[in-house]
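for the record, two folds in this file. i put them one after another cuz i was lazy. first one right below, seq on top, structure tokens after. the second one comes after a little note so u can tell where it starts
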Amino acid sequence: MSLDAFQLNAKSALVTGSHKGLGAAIAIALAQAGANVGCHGRDPKPGNACDEISALGRKTFYFAGDVADAKVCSGLMERTVAEFGSIDILVNNAGIIRRAPAAEFSADYWNEVIAVNLTAVFRLSQLAGLQMLKQGKPGKIVNIASLLAFQGGILVPAYAAAKGGVAQLTKALSNEWAAKRINVNAIAPGYMATDNTAALRADPVRNRQILERIPAGRWGDPEDLAGAAVFLCSPASDYVHGHVLVVDGGWLAR
């Protein structure tokens, strides 16, 4: 296989939750591989990802909004097609986490997490899939799952339920769209050094327990997802469908 199979030249991509963290790293990696990349976040001001994408000579834009709102999802898709002329790649990365004991976990917490981490993933995938089917050419959808698609976690019942749902949704959509040349896959990151894990990393006991369980001996960096994301968005993965690729420093193998 030629290295050209990993190139994304002239592809049009949208990465949600790419203001910073994992999403920003993925957006920049796609641009480095040749794609034009639309970025998104809830912060009204763009993060550094757009500047780095522009510096690479790629087209980009920033769209602010909460993907829990259906209008934001449709607006994101419309903006991507308007800016780039098509959508070839969607990375559903936007996500939130709320922590509380299950017996005390509020309905507001539950509804908020499910809306952002699962319902929006379906809504955006549906919109992107519809557009890709209209375009009549190959497309790639990559959902960001989690180790908690496989494990239950502690104090995060809604997050675990949503990420388990993301893994199953990935498989369900791939069953329908694989024959249409639309690949739907997911990445399940391990314990990554992002804002979502700041509380865990600041807890000396939990931080030590987590590091002792990771064979690689360190927390993951957002850039550790770059290779997996480029692979799943490129022609190199054309025969990969419905897969959840774990990037966890060996956590699940322990």
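(here's the note) second protein begins now
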Amino acid sequence: MPRLWETTIEAHRREVREAILNATAALVSDRGLRSVTMSQIAEETGIGRATLYKYFPDLEAILLAWHKRQVGSHLAYLAEVRDQAGDAGGRLEAVLDAYALICHQSHGQDTALAAFLHRDEHVDRAEQELREMIRDLVAEGAKSGDVRVDVSPDELASYCVQALTAARHVSSKVAVRRLVAVTLSGLRRPR
């Protein structure tokens, strides 16, 4: 249950909102998408139903807000990974590896929930941001001689994103790393 008051009303509202998102995610994970009710979320969060409805009109709005937060967190993590790696090739490999592992973590996710969450426009915007990040790394790698120049960076970025989503369907991190290695080999300059 969130503390009654933070230092400001805005901080309190943020804390309550985060508690609602976290409680909903836990309930959906435990019980499945179709088994969660607004009453359960209010009870799990430690707030009244009327208060819950002040924050979100329905379960769909809560789930979309939670997913938007998750996607934003993944993009921020990928940017952090990119900024910590060394040269152009190292940054590209680090981001592709991190992205593939994120995809792999969704292995076994409720398919109804995934279909529901991935139909929103925030997913399209996030995928575009991801493609742009990878495109920039590919272009940088092409300038340094690490990446092929006979295919546009946009096409190669799309190739990377599509190829690495296959990590959702493999059973181990070793298999994920193999997918990254195969993807990277497709990016190398032809000899």
